[in-house]
Amino acid sequence: MNDKSILVVDASFLTSCPNREKSIAHISRWVIHDACKVYILTSVTGVKFYNEKLGCNILSSIYFINLPNLYSKEYIGPAGIIFEFAFRIFASFFLRIPKHVRVIYTVTAVIVDPAVGLVIRAKLASARLFVTFDNHVPRPRDRPGSYFYNLIPYWSYVFTLQLLNNVDCIFAYLTHDNLNHLRSILRPRPRESILQFSNGLDLALIKSCKPSSQCQYDLIFLGRLHVAKGIFDILDVVARLNRAGHKIKAALVGPVEPPVMTAVVDFISLNNIAGCVDILGYIPIRAKYEVLKASKLFVFLSYDDSFPIAILEAIACGLPIVAYDLPIFSNPPYVDADLVFFPKGDVSQVADCISRFLYNDVIVSRRLSLKKNSQPYIFNYVDNADKEVAAFFPARRNVV
């Protein structure tokens, strides 16, 4: 009997709203289409989240394994995260895992997920560990913001790379260049043990969404509100446009940590742009696409990224896009899209371009209009979920 049981490891789930759209879509596909039995190992808050997001017809095939929390407050902080993750790795040694599980799958490559996955694989001798990897982290000095805060994710990334040398298969959601970089920094391994994926979206949902009639914006940013994501560059652009006399309205959509939120509020107050910016935070998926479709321009001023889904969402919603010129944009699918790039940190050029766009400058408007025949191919969640499950349970050859 081929028991299609998958243990999903989401030990990195913290109390702030995480991006788990892909995980929800893939788990749902595995249950409905492939008749898989799915165990989800996650924190107490993660159990609550998945119970809310997975439909009733899905939950009947879902079994939760609670990973104890060390902290229960809403914001933990960088130092607290280190202790929290260390505690979760320690706690995983004592978890009771169903012995018939043959597939262990991590939703992220954040150090705690592959570490817990390796602990569990040691308990289940015949199980294979699949780790999702989608982001290279630059050195601390190469990112804006506090060197100390940048040091924590960087060293987490370095240790994660060591763990990846010991997993069975890596699902690499990376562009070609970043995939080659990953191969170059890992120990030599069979090429089939690293499978390349292209980030996907729920294209059917996006197509069904109509532009919001209540929330309409000139500019919109989608993603984590963080200094490395260019959040203060975007606010600087808004401030410059406001001083130039534009009646600008911008939306910031995505999770934000309290210290960053405080700095954002202070910047907004200091530059007198409170009436120009709506901080929407985390909003439901459908509402997110409705707001995107009701916006004029997508602004993406991140200083580093490995495979930004937010830009794919903006492309799928038909928005023109301005962004800092990152190496990833020379790779598919971005190279096939009509994006306008600027040097990193050049807020003045970005603001000038957007100003002319808002004043309907013919040349700039054409430059910032998506070409119908240059739309890149964007994968659907279903494509990737099916590819993953095929790797979990490869078809057995008939023996004659």
Instruction: Give the tally of β-strands.
Output: 15
Helix count, per DSSP? 15
Q: Quick one: overall form?
A: globular
Order of helices and strands: EHEHHEHEHEHEHEEHEHEHEHEHEEHHEH
Percentage of helical residues? 40-55%
What do these coordinates show?
The protein has 400 residues and is of the alpha/beta class. Helices cover 40% and strands 18% of the residues. Helix 1 packs across helix 15 and helix 9 crosses helix 13. The two termini are 19 Å apart. The C terminus is likely disordered.
What features would you highlight for this structure?
7-stranded parallel beta sheet; disordered C terminus; alpha/beta; 6-stranded parallel beta sheet; 15 helices; 400 residues
Question: What are the SSEs and their pairings?
Answer:
Layout: E1 5-10, H1 21-34, E2 37-43, H2 44-53, H3 56-59, E3 62-67, H4 78-92, E4 103-106, H5 112-123, E5 128-133, H6 147-164, E6 169-173, H7 176-185, E7 194-197, E8 200-201, H8 203-208, E9 217-222, H9 231-243, E10 250-253, H10 258-270, E11 277-281, H11 285-293, E12 295-300, H12 309-316, E13 321-324, E14 339-342, H13 347-358, H14 362-367, E15 379-380, H15 381-392
Parallel strand pairs: 1-2, 1-4, 2-3, 4-5, 5-6, 6-7, 8-15, 9-10, 9-12, 10-11, 12-13, 13-14
Helix pairs in contact: 1-15, 4-5, 9-13
